[in-house]
Write the C-alpha cells for this entry.
Amino acid sequence: MAKAPTKATVARHSQQIAVSSGLTKRQRRDTWLGLAFVSPWLVGFLVFTIYPVIASLYFSFTDYNVVSDPRWIGFRNYTDLFSDPLFGETLYNTLYLAVLGIPFSLILSLLIAMLLNNKLKLQGMFRTVYFLPSVVPAVAAALLWRWFLNPDYGPINEVLWQVGINGPGWLSDPRWAKPALILASLWGVGGSMVIYLAGLQNVPTPLYESAHLDGANAWQRFRFVTLPMLSPVILFNLVMGIITSFQSFTNIYIMTGGGPSNSTMVYALYLYQNAFQFFRMGYASAMAWVLLLITAVALIAIFRTSGWVHYESRS
Amino acid sequence: MSEPAIVQRAIDGLGRRLAKRLTQSLFLALALLAALGTTGFALAKTEITFWYAWGGSEGEQVEELIAEYNASQDEVEVRGSFVPIGDGERILASLAGGAPPDLLTVWDWMVVPLGASGSLLDLSAELAEAGIGEEDYLPGIWQYGSYKGAKYGLPTTLNVYAFIWNKDVFEEAGLDPEAPPRTIEELDALAEKMTVIDRRGNLRRLGFYPNVTSIYFYAFGGQLYDPETLEVTLDHPRNIAALEWLGDYYEKYDINLIRRFQAGWGNPASPFNPFYRGQIAMQEGGQWEVRFTHEYAPDLDWGVTTFPAPEGGRPNVAPVQSSFWVVPAEAAHKKEALEFLLWLTAPEQSAGFAAELANIPPRQDALEMPEFAQTVTPHMQTFIDILLEGYVFTPPGLPVGLYLSQQLNQAVVSVQEGEATAKEALETAQQNVLHELEKYR
C-alpha cells in the first residue's frame, strides 16, 4: 500500500539521496553554485550545440525548406540519398582526398619535423617559416594557390614548360583537379608539424644513447625508438586529419567551387548547396548524419586497429 | 571558522547581494522602458528596415533615394542597410526566425520558393489597388516573380542578354566586322575561323564561347518550363537538339582545353575581361557591357545583336534576369514598406536607379524618363530593342529554385564528359526535378 508522503519522509528521503550520492548539503550547494557560475557556457552549449544537433536529426526525417514548417517524410531523405548520383560522387571525391591526402601530409609533416628537430643554425627561423603557412587565412591561401596552379600564367606550369612539359590544366581539368587540391593542402602541414616537433622533443635522449651503444644505425633508431615513441602523436594527427578532411570546405569552395565537372565537389560543399541554395535542409541534415556515421565508423576502425600505438605509461 | 568556510560565506553573501542588485536594476530598467513607451516613442516616426544588395557607388545611390524619401514625408523613417544577397543564409535566417526586415532584396530564383512557402507577402491586391498592372511593365515582365496568381515581388532593374561580337577580331581574321552570324551554321563556321591554338597546343582564342546554356535551348525553340501550365519541360525535343549541338561544340574544341583556357581569363569587370582582350570573339553579353566597355575597354569596337537561331527556332530570344524587392510576410510594418516600395518603383526613381546601375528599368514609363533616356547609348538602345521586341524569358518561377538549374548544369556536365547523350541527360534531369516538385503538391 502506498502512503501519501509526509514532510518527514520526504526530508528523510532527500537526506538518503544526498548520502547515497556521497554529497553533504554544503557540497551540494557548492555544486549548484559551480553550475550557476558555468551556466553561461552550459546554456550556450545546450542551445547552440546540443539543440541544433538533435534538431538536425529530426529535420533529417522531414521535408524542410527552412522557412516553412518541417513535414515528416520518414526515411525518404535517406533513400533519396542512395539514388542521388552526386551523393556517391561527392563521397568518392571526399574519400579520394582523404585517402591520398592524409598519408602524404602525415609523412611530409613528420619529415619536416625531424629535420627541424636537428640542431641547426637558424633553427628558430626555419621552424617559423615552415609553420607560417598554417596561420595564413584559408581564403588567402586558396587564392594564392589558384594563381600558382594557373595553367597559363602560374609559376608551376611555367617551370614545367622550361623543361619541355606542357603542364596540365590543374584545377581546370577534372583529371588533375583532385591531385592539385592535395598538392595545395600540403602547404598547410605546419600545424601537424608543430605537434610532431613537440612529440620528438619528448623522446628521452637516453633511449637514443643506449640504442647507439647497442649498435643501432640511424634507420633502426628511427624505426625502433622514434616511431614507437611518436605513435600516440601520429594517431592524434591521423584522427584530426580524418575529421578535418571529411569536412573540408573553404579552400575547395574558393579554389574550384566543386568544378570542373563536379570533380572536386566534396561532401561538405554539396551539403551546403542543398541546405542554402536548393532550400533542402531536410536532405542536407540527412547528409550530415550520414557523414557523422561514416566518420564514426572510420574512427572506430582506426582505434580498433591501433595496436601499433605505444603508450609509455602502459609499458 | 576555518578559512575555506569564511571564503564560502563571503561567496554566498556576494551571490545574494548580487542577485538582489540584479533584480532591483531589472525592475528599474523595465519601469524606465514602460515610461519611454508611453511618452517618448509616441513622438518618433515609424521605422522601417530595408535591406538592399548593392555596395559602392550603387549603394550610395540607394542611400540617396532613401534620404529623399525620408525627407519627403514625416510618417516613416526608412533605415537602409547593405546586405549582400550572397547565398541567402542571412536572409533565410531572418525569415525563418520571424524577425525579417520590412523590405528586402533577393535574387529572382528565391522569389517563388520563398513566396510559395508563405514567407513573402502576395502583393497582387495592393498593386491592383494602387492601379499598377501588367500594362505598366515591359512586355513579358509582369509574370516574372509570380506563381499561381500570386505576385511575390517587383523586379528592381532588368538585365538582358544579347549576342555580342568583337569587331576587331573579325577584321583581324579577314571577316566582315558588320556581318554577325544569323544562323547556327554561320556561327559554327565563324567560330572555327577565329579560333587560335598556340605552339603548346593550348587555346589562344575561342571563336565562340557559349556560357549560359539555357539561352540556346530557347533559341532552338525549346523551353525549360511552360509559364502557363507551370509544367517542367527540360526534356523538350528542341532542348535536346540544342544540347546535342553544344555537345558537338565541346567535343570539337575539347572541353578540357576550353576549361584550361578559361582558367587564365581575367575578371569580367576589368580590362582583363577575355572578350575585351580578344580571347573570345563571340559570346553572350548583358547590357552591363555598355558600362563595362566604356570603363575598361574604351577603344574596343564591338557589336550587339539578337542570338543566331537554327531553322524552326526562335531568332529573337531575350533572356532577362533581375533581383527583386519583396516584403516578408512577417514584416513588422508591411503597409509602410509597401508604400515605400511603390515610391521606389515609380518611374522617376526607377529610371534614375536603372541609369546608375546601367540596367534597364522594368517599367514602360520609366524608359522615357530623362533620367534614363539621356544615358542611352546606341549599344544600349540595341539591348532595349531586343528586350522590347524579342521573346522574353526569365528563370523558371518554380518552388524548386536553384535545384532545377543545378540539374541542368549536371546534364550539361554529363554531356561534356561523354557520360550520357543529350537525350539521356535531360531525361534524368527532368525526372529529378519532377521528383523534387512532388514535395510541393
Chain B has a mean pLDDT of 88. The first strand of chain B starts at residue 46 and ends at 52.
